[in-house]
Design a protein that fits this description.
By secondary structure, the chain is mainly alpha-helical. 52% of the residues lie in helices and 4% in strands. The protein has a two-stranded antiparallel sheet. The termini are far apart.
Length: 108
């Protein structure tokens, strides 16, 4: 299981509602390729990026790294049974960029 961020990281900012605003978890300057992540890694990634409540949906649906890379926008918006606002952010700012990065790293 990977450790995506340290709770004392100065890049994190606690919001008034108790959620945490973080930069994307990185390894050696870039987000790691999720192709080999287990379900717990996916859950920890979303917890580390400020989606603590929504991370349980990935656990409940048994989404591992390979599944995450196959998810469509519709899967995230409707298949995980999470509120629309967080679902849009999860897809646009996390799932889609992880998919793009994975494709670029495997194309070379």
């Amino acid at each position: 299981m990977r450790n995506y961020c340290n709770v004392t990281d100065p890049g994190m900012e606690e919001k008034a509602n108790g959620s945490v605003d973080t930069k994307s978890p990185v390894e050696n300057g870039q987000v790691p390729d999720p192709a080999n992540w287990g379900v717990a890694d996916v859950v920890n990634y979303f917890k580390a990026t400020g989606f603590e409540e929504q991370a349980t949906a990935f656990q409940d649906q048994e989404i591992d790294g390979k599944s995450l890379l196959l998810m469509t926008r519709n899967d995230v918006l409707t298949g995980l049974s999470i509120k629309l606002g967080p679902a849009l952010k999860i897809y646009e700012y996390h799932v889609k960029p992880l998919q793009t990065q994975h494709l670029k790293s495997n194309a070379s």
